[in-house]
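Much of the work behind modern protein science is quiet bookkeeping, done one molecule at a time. Below is the pair of lines this work produces for a single protein:

***
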Amino acid sequence: MSKTIVNIIDKSNPLPAYLFTKEFYEEGDGLLFISPEEEADCIQLLTQQLEVDENHVQRIIVKRFQENFLYEHICRTIKNELDGKTQYYLNLAGGNRYMTLSVQHVFEEFNTLFFYTQTRENQIVKTIFDHSIYDDDDEVFPIKHRMTLKEYFGLYGLQSDVDEPRKQVKETSFSQHLFTMFSQSLLGRGDYEVMTALRERYRNWNYLRIAEAEKPTKDNMTAIPALSKFLNYIGFKPEQSDSLQSYEMEYLTGGWFEEYVYALIKEVLKPDDIAMGVHISNGVIKHNNELDVCFIKANKLFVIECKTGVTSESLFNEIVYKVCALKEVLLGTSNSYIFSLKKDHKGVWKKTAKYMGITFCDWLNLTKPENLKHILKEMNQIAKEK
């Protein structure tokens, strides 16, 4: 008997359909997608990501009847397309409740195995709909498939440069060294002035000659007289001894912290996929959004905005709004964090971030081993992996 995998399309959350199909689809199986007319365009995106033969894909598009979705109309539309000689694997995770009830009712008349994909728990439940609720015949299967960042972004119709990830500028030990200097207040006012000048005046330059920066000869340059002293103090050796390249200036003005967080997450959480400086776009709005550090574990996406310091409440609010905008672009499916060496003594900024669905990790979270361990443990719990 032939087998067909059935999913109800949910444009806002295609993950259950994707993972269910990944778990049960075998070569030669049929694929059936049931969708309201206004969400049918999502089917093509799913089939592309699943890399299945279009000839094996069946679509049932439910149109509105007299401007409404009517139960009997939905049931008739679906029933007319089904085959009594096929075994159906039906995933009930998708669509609104009205659609799901209609689909379940129709398929009960056919040779159907019923499932529900729980992405939060990373598992699939197989259920038998009968009159007994005391025989404990439900079965639970862990989802084995582990998505990559490219898979995840593609599933939500996002364009990205994740195939060309930003590489580390310095070895992890040097980023750890800078973390110690920043977190233990080993940098003076002059050091911060150097970094501010690099960030505000030269970060977009292709390169900067050190001697020229210390004693400028051009009107469009800002003097940084203590640049060599700063580089020597922190132990930073440029690739070319007489100049700083653009990626080195980016590293010195905050990129090092992204590399520190990247290495920390990679070592402790051991994600399925992780990258720095990934740019994403929905293909409609031209504006590109950069993810400082993003990783995926057990099919859950985590995004971390990294800021060495936040000088004012208004700047913090800008960062929060940026992260919220990223969550919106990612359809609200990401777990969003802000990591900063700012000291939030009164917890005001944590509350602001939490209100917007973001976890703010300040200096205390990052420098105290027990606090950091707690944050990382919470991430593992979200991923449902110990």
Notes: Residues 246-268 form the longest helix (23 residues). The mean pLDDT is 88. DSSP finds 14 helices and 15 strands in the chain. The longest strand covers residues 273-281.
